[in-house]
Specification:
This protein is an alpha/beta fold. It has one domain: Rossmann fold. It is built from nine helices and seven strands, in the order H-H-H-E-H-E-H-E-E-H-E-H-H-H-E-E. A seven-stranded mixed β-sheet has the order 3-2-1-4-5-7-6, sandwiched between helices. Strand 6 and strand 7 form a beta hairpin. The relative contact order is 0.15. Bound molecules: S-adenosylmethionine. S-adenosylmethionine binds next to helix 1 and helix 4.
C-alpha cells in the first residue's frame, strides 16, 4: 500500500473498507478496549453544537460520530458523508441517518453550509491532506468548527515496545481473525507511522485558514484530537 498514490490509493482504501465494513465497529471496540466511544463524545463536545446546529461527519463510515451528535442534539441537522457505500449501508442498519456519498477532496456541498465538521479516523486516509482541510474550511460557516480525531505517531517512551507490539501484532492478528482481512489492519500501523505529527497537522490546519487551532493526545499518545475555527 505504501507505494500507492493518488487514485490508486483512494481505490485501495475504498476496497479495503468495503471488505471490512461488516465487522468494522466490533473491531474498533475491541482494539481500543471501548475507548473510542469516549473519544467520540469528546469530539462532539469540542464541536460545540447547539440544538439547531448543522453538522457534517466526514468519512462517517457506519455513522458512529453522527449518531453520537444526534443522541445529544436530536434537533440538529446531521449529515454523514463517505466515499465507501458499503460502510454507510452497514451503518444504515444501526438506525436512520442522513447519509451522503461524497469524496472528502470534492465535497458536494455549497460554501458556508455547516456549523461544524467532524471526522473520525478519516484524515490519515485521504490522498491530499491539505485539499481535504481546505474543502472542510470552504463548507463551514464563519465561526464554524472543525474537529479531527485520528491515530498519530506516539513520542518514544518506556511503553514504546508495547505500543509497537499492539499496533504491529495484536491489531493485525485480531483484525485477520475477525474480518478475514489482516491486510486492512496492517494498513493501520503503516498509515499511522507515515502520517503527519500532531504539530504538523496543526500547522496544516492553520495553513488552510483555521484559527485557534489546538490538539489533545489520548491513549498513550497514539490518538489525537485537533480542533480549529473558521475565521
Ligand atoms: C477508519 S474509517 C472511519 C469511520 C468513522 N468515521 C469512525 O469514526 O469509525 C475511515 C472512513 O473514511 C472513508 N474515507 C477515506 N477516504 C475518503 C475520502 N477521500 N472521501 C470520503 N470518505 C473517505 C472510508 O471510506 C472509511 O469509511
Amino acid at each position: 500500500m505504501a507505494q500507492l498514490t493518488g487514485n490508486e490509493r483512494a481505490k485501495y482504501v475504498q476496497e479495503m473498507f468495503t471488505r471490512i465494513a461488516r465487522r468494522y465497529d466490533l473491531m474498533n471496540r475491541l482494539m481500543t478496549g471501548g475507548q473510542d466511544v469516549r473519544w467520540r463524545k469528546r469530539v462532539i463536545e469540542l464541536a460545540r453544537l447547539d440544538e439547531n446546529a448543522s453538522l457534517l461527519d466526514l468519512g462517517t463510515g457506519t455513522g458512529d460520530l453522527a449518531r453520537e451528535a444526534l443522541a445529544e442534539f436530536p434537533q440538529a441537522r446531521v449529515v454523514g458523508a463517505d466515499f465507501t457505500l458499503e460502510m454507510m449501508r452497514v451503518g444504515r442498519r444501526a438506525g436512520l441517518l442522513d447519509f451522503s456519498a461524497a469524496d472528502a477532496l470534492r465535497l458536494p456541498f455549497p460554501d458556508a453550509s455547516f456549523d461544524a465538521v467532524v471526522s473520525g479516523f478519516l484524515m490519515r486516509n485521504v490522498v491530499d491532506l491539505q485539499k481535504a482541510l481546505e474543502e472542510q474550511y470552504r463548507i463551514l460557516k464563519h465561526g464554524g468548527r472543525i474537529v479531527i480525531l485520528d491515530t498519530t505517531r506516539p513520542k518514544k517512551n518506556i511503553l514504546s515496545p508495547f505500543i509497537w507490539l499492539h499496533m504491529h501484532f495484536v491489531i493485525p492478528t485480531l483484525g485477520g481473525l475477525l474480518t478475514g482481512s489482516r491486510d486492512a489492519y496492517r494498513y493501520l500501523p503503516e498509515t499511522t507511522e507515515g502520517f503527519v505529527t500532531v504539530e504538523e497537522m496543526a500547522s496544516r490546519m492553520e495553513k488552510a485558514g483555521f484559527l485557534k487551532v489546538g490538539f489533545q493526545r489520548l491513549m498513550l499518545g497514539t490518538i489525537a484530537i485537533h480542533w480549529g475555527v473558521k475565521a
